[in-house]
């Protein structure tokens, strides 16, 4: 895919020679994978062309979805998905590679955010919920129950007390019951739910019936079964304030955290993916974050196309 993007940039630059054209044709003919990669890059590049004049791509996405997802007609929902997926506005792999029904549900959710967007909402009972970028949740408040369902992305919850109505959060992998608490819930790409508890405790029950209590300062991942509990990093919830706090985490994890906040492709070369990162970085300005990383680590930020950015070992691009 990286090679396809580089070929595309060269051929559209106006500087390609006849020899370059011949080498591109040879590369294209060498493998079906090359042809598929070229088709993908060409399609997405065409989709981005009309967005060049749009000051805020997220506004384009918002215009495709009605303000209240519950009243969107099915036809409009599918049309919006087609445009969003084609343009790359969905941004995050969790949505981009999701099954179509899941993307439809995200577009129709009661509360949602787009690429690069953070939002705080206050529910009817006073519970505060922060939505990370590319997140969708549904709300179900009724007599005897307060319930949120996470469709995509990550939320931070600070629950309001209401002894008569339990507060639960459902994900595709199970149910979480808050026990007077502040906690974060995230759907992960690998098909699991991540839970970190900062205050109080949360009772977890998987779809298979496994159960556990996770107390403040602990975290775990679960799917059909429960993972082991680990120490939670309290600084991680800084994402709700637009800050990524990295405490000795690999560069590939930083890239994963940045992807929901950036339109287009953001990749990292295997040889630098394991570099350890320390610091605080702005999520709302990923270009600034990339510049900070480039100044602190032996890496180079390679912008092959406006929407295709790769992190490589320093000197690698220049040596090609």
From TrEMBL:
<feature type="transmembrane region" description="Helical">
    <location>
        <begin position="77"/>
        <end position="95"/>
    </location>
</feature>
<feature type="domain" description="FecR protein">
    <location>
        <begin position="110"/>
        <end position="203"/>
    </location>
</feature>
<feature type="domain" description="FecR N-terminal">
    <location>
        <begin position="2"/>
        <end position="43"/>
    </location>
</feature>
<dbReference type="Pfam" id="PF04773">
    <property type="entry name" value="FecR"/>
</dbReference>
<dbReference type="Pfam" id="PF16220">
    <property type="entry name" value="DUF4880"/>
</dbReference>
<keyword id="KW-0472">Membrane</keyword>
<dbReference type="InterPro" id="IPR032623">
    <property type="entry name" value="FecR_N"/>
</dbReference>
<keyword id="KW-1133">Transmembrane helix</keyword>
<dbReference type="InterPro" id="IPR012373">
    <property type="entry name" value="Ferrdict_sens_TM"/>
</dbReference>
<dbReference type="InterPro" id="IPR006860">
    <property type="entry name" value="FecR"/>
</dbReference>
<protein>
    <submittedName>
        <fullName>DUF4880 domain-containing protein</fullName>
    </submittedName>
</protein>
<dbReference type="GO" id="GO:0016989">
    <property type="term" value="F:sigma factor antagonist activity"/>
</dbReference>
<keyword id="KW-0812">Transmembrane</keyword>
